[in-house]
Amino acid sequence: MNLPAFLNKVDDITSDLTEDQLQGYIHELVRVLPESKRQDFIDKLSLYSKAEDKNSTIIDEDKHKDDLIKKIKNSGG
Asked: Which of 2, 6, 54, 58 is the most buried (most CB within 10 A)?
């Protein structure tokens, strides 16, 4: 599955979840996260929790991915 389709599917599923369900999923996801990736996860999560606009993309890597997805969608590819 390509990235835009994957992101759309994730958005479709998560839009129907409650806050408790999302927290439960995140807990299960990070429970198996390798120790070497845990601090990076906490750092990114902390950035999102401090954002004034909770819908904004505040991590440059994520913004770059969003921009690429828009370009792909606009080019028809």
From this structure: 58
